[in-house]
From TrEMBL:
Transmembrane segments: 433-454
Region feature Disordered, mapped onto this chain: 31-58, 402-425
Record keywords, A-Z: Membrane, Metal-binding, Signal, Transmembrane, Transmembrane helix
InterPro entries: SQ_cyclase_C, Terpenoid_cyclase/PrenylTrfase
Compositional bias of kind Low complexity: 402-417
Annotated protein name in UniProt: Terpene cyclase/mutase family protein
Keyword Signal among UniProt keywords: yes
A Pfam family hit: SQHop_cyclase_C
Keyword Transmembrane helix: yes
UniProt signal peptide: 1-26
Domain of life: Bacteria
Domain Squalene cyclase C-terminal, chain residue ranges per copy: 77-169
Amino acid sequence: MITPARLGSAVLAGLLLAGTAAPALAESASAAPSSPAATPSTAPSAAGSTAPGPAGTPAPAAVPAGLYGKGDPGYDGVWRQSLALTALKQNEVVPAESAVGWLLGQQCADGGWPSFRADTATACDPKTEDSNATAVAVQALVALGGHAEPVAKAVQWFKANQNTDGTWSYNPGSPGDADSTALAVSALLAAGADPAGVARDGHSAYDGLAGFQLGCASPADQRGAFAYQPVAGSPLTANVLASSQAALAAAGGHLPVTADSRADAPAKPLACADGAAAGTVARADSASAAAAYLTAKLAAGGQRLLLDTPGATPGPDFNATSWAVLSLVQAGHAKEAASAADWLAGNGYAWAAQGKNGTDPAAAATLLLVARATKLDPYNFGGTNMVQLLIDAGPKPASVPAAAAAKAANEPDATKAPGSGITEPDENGGFSAGWMIGVGLLVGVGGGLLLSLNRRRTTRNGAK
């Protein structure tokens, strides 16, 4: 089968043969994105593939057998492993026992997970246990099935490490943040524990999450968003990654997103009367308000969210955009999510496959989750076989579905075919309808010129 990327190459070759120039792409997919791959939060220790710091910081950890990816796992080992296992399971790939065993072996005696545990024979330091890693590990084990005991221990860990305001922090003992609280809520939902009943000092997990959402006292264009963390003496400020991850929890979702609900109407922004008093957003309105904010933000950014982390290089936030798509689908707004999913299909290859260590399994898994949630082809996501790309980043799976085996055999180069540099909002696969029409016109013009020149040569030759 000819993939969109291969079709594009053929069209460009035709243009060159016709003597016409190819149009410049507005955005290069081969440019390395500036955001860390699938970073769970803005905490420094969650910086994905970030290189070690100055002298005195730990040396890069060796990549153990069974782990997905080739990069230093010290910051994101459990995170990327959990996302990879979740995404592969959703696509009917049975992972290797070593991959599942590695994740189980990372769990601490009290039920939590650290970001990475180099020596499993040494007891965990509770202060270094990571709520984000624990949350995605729980969701992965629930998706895999058959791991009730470690999941139950993790639920108890969440209960023991909940802050008095109902929130969770990245590491225990710190003030809560929206990303960590949202991921914890999603983990509880996956495990079958009602977040409304998980409380500390009378504040439930939902109460904790609500404390980060911007309500009627905020500027109209930020209402429904979530702040990463309150700053004393300052109003809450919207954060796109926090909003994207918190929206999934507010909509009652967890990974993998498999919701088939479809809302008949667009997401409703908060209904705020003039002079509305400050207050938390009601739980009944939370998911819709967050979805309305994300939909507007995506539209304003050309169907992708933009990095808003202080000090970050301006550009697309692939991670936040992916979580926004998952959240919108979970909330029943798949139509609003479709254009952003198409943008990711056309532009996400560099983020997933062209990092300094090759394929980033967390990014590849996130895009694979997006493909399945939005009912796009995971074997041809912007021209890339995302299933095989993720399989190739880890240990050989125990089994793969027939479809995956057939695709790998028939199109062995599909994982190396990048998506296009730009995708229009209503197109999947990397080449917009407008672009293709333009190509057709150029090919037609080139062909017409060649035909005209040939006729002139024929006329001249006949006149001699």
